[in-house]
Structures are given as C-alpha cells and as structure tokens.
Amino acid sequence: MKKSTKKDIARHLRQEQTPAEAHLWELLRNRQFEDLKFRRQHPIKEYIVDFCCIEIMLVIELDGEYHNDTYQKEKDELRDTHIRGLGYRVLRYPNKTALKNTQFIYDDILKRKGETPPSPSREKVGLRVLSTKKLKPNQRELLLNAGVSFVEYDAISIESIDFEIPKGLGNIIITSQNGANAFINSNDLQEEKIGLMCFCVGNKTTALLEKNGLKVVKAAQNGEELGHFIAKNHQNEHFTYFCGNQRRDELPTILKEAGISCNEIVTYETHLNEQTFNQKFDGFLFYSPSGVSAFAKANTISTAFCIGETTATEVKKYTQNIVVSNATTIESTIAKAVNTLKKQGIQ
Fold this sequence. Notes:
Layout: H1 6-15, H2 19-28, E1 39-44, E2 47-53, E3 58-63, H3 70-85, E4 89-94, H4 95-100, H5 102-113, E5 127-131, H6 137-144, E6 148-152, E7 156-160, E8 171-174, H7 177-184, H8 189-192, E9 197-201, H9 203-211, E10 215-220, H10 223-233, E11 239-244, H11 250-257, E12 262-272, E13 283-286, H12 289-296, E14 304-306, H13 309-315, E15 322-324, H14 330-344
Parallel strand pairs: 3-4, 5-6, 5-13, 8-9, 8-11, 9-10, 11-12, 13-14, 14-15
Antiparallel strand pairs: 1-2, 2-3, 7-12
Helix pairs in contact: 3-14, 7-9, 10-11, 12-13
C-alpha cells in the first residue's frame, strides 16, 4: 500500500476543516485580506500548519479544547519553537477567537505585516544537552530542529535472564517496559495468560501489555503510587512482581508494611555503563534511576530533566536543580528540556 505523503495528508485535512478553520479561511482566501496570499493546511518540514502566508513568513494555528491539556501545550510550544527556527512568526488562537473575534486576528496580522521576519536559526546552535539514552531519529530531530546540539550514550544496558512463570498466577506487577517485554516473551506465558490481572507503571508499559492481550487493572505514574493503590484496594490478595535486579524499594516496602503477600521474580539485569564527559552541558536528560546512578559515578549533574518523579528522586541525591516532564515519555522529557532552556534564555 502506498504511504501517504505530507501533501496527501494536507489535502485530506483541507476536506475535514473544523468550523473555526472554515470560517477564517473564508475571510483570508483569494487575497481578500490586505492582498496577502494565505495557504491552508500547508506543509512546513514535518509539520502541517493551519494557515500560512509565505510573503510575510506568518503561520496561524487554531486550537480546539484538547490543546488546553498540559502535555499538548508542551508539544505545541516545541512545535512553535521549531517553526520559528525556520524563520516564521507563529500566531496561535482558540477556535472561539476565530469564530467570534476575527478583528483581533486581523490586527495581529497587520502588526506582523509591518515587521521584518526573523532569520532562520536552524544553524545557530547555542544549547547543548546530554542524553543518557541513545535517541531514535525522530527524537533527535526534536532537539536539532530547536537548535539544540546534544551528546547521547546508553548509561545502562539490559540483559535478559532465564526465569520461570509460576503456575496459578492471578495478580502481577510490572513496573517497566523491560519487565513487560521479558514477561510477554516468556515461553511459559501462554498457559497462564487467561485471567491475569496486571498492575503496572507507565503509559508505554500499559500499552505494551494491552497490545499483547493482557488486562491492566491499574496503571500508575510510579511505584509508590501503585503500592498505595494496591495496599488500599487489594489487601487480601497475593501478587507476583516481575522486575529487574535493581528495582526500586518503594513499592515492595509499601506492600510489606501493608501485610500484602508479594513474590518477586527477577527477569532481567541492569548494568551501569560508567563514562566520563568533560564537555560543558546546559542540561542532562535522565530516563531511569539506574541511568542517573551510572552517569553520576563519573560526572557532576547540574540541571537535570527527568522522565518522571521516581527518576527525579534519584537525581535529588546529586542536585536540586530538577525539572520533571509532563508525561513519562522520552519525547516529553526532550520537549520540557528545550522549552525550559529556551525560556531561561540560555543561548
């Protein structure tokens, strides 16, 4: 099947306009406003913007209610940063402004028309961060498109080990994608799969388990939250915890103090990769407590950007200058780092 191109997607979006987009387009199309030529659903690099006027390098975005979500706002800010880096000005409005207060948008356009467009900043690299995990191409682009240089390495490595899944499993706990993969790939799983109740940590761990036909009863943001949930709602039940050799203590401690039976099975080993970096960095990206421990063995941590609260807890041993991402994903951690450093004016 032929893969859709950006032009194909843009063409489809033009046919599926929101009421706000349709209303504003009727007012801007065919050079009706100030003889400016606007394009709708226009591709710019990897993005498709709602409206674009290349003559004055201006982008207009209209936002529905879901753009009020904290994580979505973060993504929007990073997207706008990338587009500005290409030399465009970006104006962003709620849908209701386009429907009820068009004059406000007109005034903004006129103001930008009289200004000199900014120069592209793609090549002006002023920020440098270190990632304690090697990034995928799309994750690297999030940094590069924002004019941020980076160094990446794997602070930890994972080694699978042999283990057996006990008969008669009921409730299982999995707190990482590594644990989920080891459990899913076990030869013993198929016999025990039916009726399993999964309690896990992290959105991606949850998605991985559900994709493989497992029922997730509770998905928490960290082990401490999950421990308190189980202690409150499943006091008289038995659990099996599939974890790594360097698992955190919070969850098992909470279950033990609540008198809840929990059998631990180690499914993988985490190895710390010690490496010294002598360059100066504006921030460090951390995705796991083990990654923090590995990096800190040979380096000093200044500003740390953490994927979640559990990782941040480990970082607190070395610095108090910590920023936690809005969602437990690598992309969110990168977005938080870029937006924070840009706002601080570290250039």
